[in-house]
Write a structure and sequence with these properties.
The chain is α/β, with parallel strands linked by helices and about 325 residues long. The chain has helices spanning about 35-55, 100, 105-115, 140, 160-170, 215-225, 235-240, 265-270, 270-280, 290-295, and strands at about 10-15, 60-65, 85, 90-95, 120-125, 140-145, 150-155, 175-180, 180-185, 185-190, 200, 205, 230-235, 250, 255-260, 280-285, 305. The longest helix has 21 residues, at about 35-55. It is globular and about 45 Å long.
């Protein structure tokens, strides 16, 4: 049976983190700052290093790669959007909305992982959609229930139906699609990535169901979780805006489970929600203020799960 929770993570250490103007067109979580470029990089790097240290102190295995100065990739800290790693040894690359984010795809990182993991094939089939301005941004767009081979995807400029259909054909996943919204300057606009409002664990799902305005779509999504015997943990739209939906369940070397999130997300949760989540693992959080403010992403976005088989076995 496929695993739902990974023991291995890939993370990219930034060299020139900044607000990406190309992604801010439809990522309304990004905000401006008066900080200098040097100050932003210093703060983001400290947040990244502290986060990795906390993960490693919990005996969670993290493969950290350094970003490069050239080409300029201000969002390289969020690798889960351009690649996913699968238990059958396959690697899938994804079409990206922003031109400068396409530069994040690095074959050298995949080759480096090939030293420790068995890689059977690297699928680039979906990349041709970029020529037609259609996108699907990895496990930002797709929330994978790996055990049941079901994916959940919220439509947006970065998550389009035609590419979803191609993903289904490529992987044999069944995708349940819907549109999730949030309030932006008095308007209900699509949330840029599904992983901002939903996280799936082995026995639970945390979701902002109220973001799915269409009640039929909402019921279809919730019914799927009920059918898979997942405990449904609901969060509010305010908690979504504090990145409470952007968490990831992982395991350490001793098979102990952790729910990884930012401190901002942790502080937005109420006591009952924390109690519900603690049944599924230790809550681990780290301060990611600068990364969240300028990058418009949080803890889950920074971790690319590695499910590849190891060469040791």
């Amino acid at each position: 049976m496929p695993d739902q929770i990974t023991q291995q993570l890939m993370m990219i250490r930034p060299v020139a983190f900044s607000k990406n103007k190309e992604t801010s067109l439809n990522n309304y979580f990004q905000v401006d700052t008066e900080l200098t470029a040097a100050s932003i990089q210093t703060k983001a790097l400290q947040e990244f290093d502290d986060f990795v240290q906390k993960l490693r102190e919990a005996s969670i295995e993290v493969h950290v790669f350094e970003d490069t100065q050239d080409p300029s990739t201000p969002d390289s800290i969020f690798p889960n959007n351009w690649v996913s790693f699968h238990q059958n040894g396959s690697v899938i690359l994804y079409p990206m909305f922003a031109n400068n984010r396409r530069l994040e795809r690095r074959s050298d990182l995949i080759d480096a992982l090939g030293s420790d993991f068995k890689i059977t094939e690297v699928f680039e089939d979906l990349l041709s959609f970029e020529l037609h301005h259609k996108f699907l941004e990895g496990t930002g767009s797709l929330i994978l229930d790996r055990v049941n081979h079901i994916a959940y995807a919220s439509y947006s400029d970065r998550t389009e139906q035609e590419v979803i259909l191609a993903f289904e054909k490529l992987t044999a996943y069944s995708v349940i699609s819907f549109t999730a919204y949030h309030n932006v300057d008095g308007q209900r606009l699509p949330i840029y990535h599904t992983n901002v409002m939903m996280s799936i664990g082995d026995r639970f799902v945390l979701i902002c169901a109220e973001a799915i305005d269409d009640l039929i779509e909402r019921e279809r999504v919730l019914a799927s979780f009920i059918n898979q015997s997942k405990e449904i943990i609901l969060i509010s739209e305010d908690q979504l805006n504090n990145y409470a939906g952007n968490m990831l369940q992982v395991k350490n070397k001793n098979n102990a489970c952790f729910l990884v999130m930012s401190t901002r997300a942790f502080q937005s949760l109420n006591a009952q929600q924390k109690q519900q989540l603690e049944k599924h693992g230790t809550l681990l959080h780290s301060n990611l203020t600068t990364i969240e403010m300028l990058g418009g992403g949080s803890a889950r976005c920074m971790m690319a799960e590695i499910f590849l088989p190891t060469k040791k076995t």
